[in-house]
Amino acid sequence: MPEIALIVIGSLVIGFLGRNRKFGFWGYFFGSLLFTPFVGLVLVFASDKISREEVATS
User: Fold this and answer.
1) Structural domain boundaries enclosing 15
2) For 20, phi and psi rounded to 5 degrees?
3) Model pLDDT, residue 26
4) Nearest to residue 11, comparing CAs of 34, 23, 29, 38?
5) pLDDT digit string (tens) for 7-56?
């Protein structure tokens, strides 16, 4: 049971780190839950940040 809690907490952290990236908080959160938080972290660092123009049009 503690392992599941660590995975969920790790996924929340990954989602928080990815909130200003292409997939946003929920994309990285669910990606980390589906795979592992380590894979989610790799995805966050491999993705591009959202530019100011994309934020303004959203």
Assistant:
1) 2-57
2) -105, 25
3) 95
4) 29
5) 999 999 999 999 999 899 999 999 999 999 999 999 999 988 887 666 66
- Structurally, the chain folds into a number of domains equal to 1
So what's the pLDDT on residue 49? 86
CA angle 23, 34, 30 (to 5 degrees): 35
Do 43 and 31 meet the contact criterion of CB atoms below 8 Å apart?
A: yes
Query: How far is 34 from 32, CA to CA, in rounded Å?
Result: 5
Cα 24 to Cα 20: distance, rounded to the nearest angstrom: 6
> Is-contact 25 15, C-beta < 8 A?
yes
Euclidean distance between CA atoms 22 and 6, whole angstroms: 25
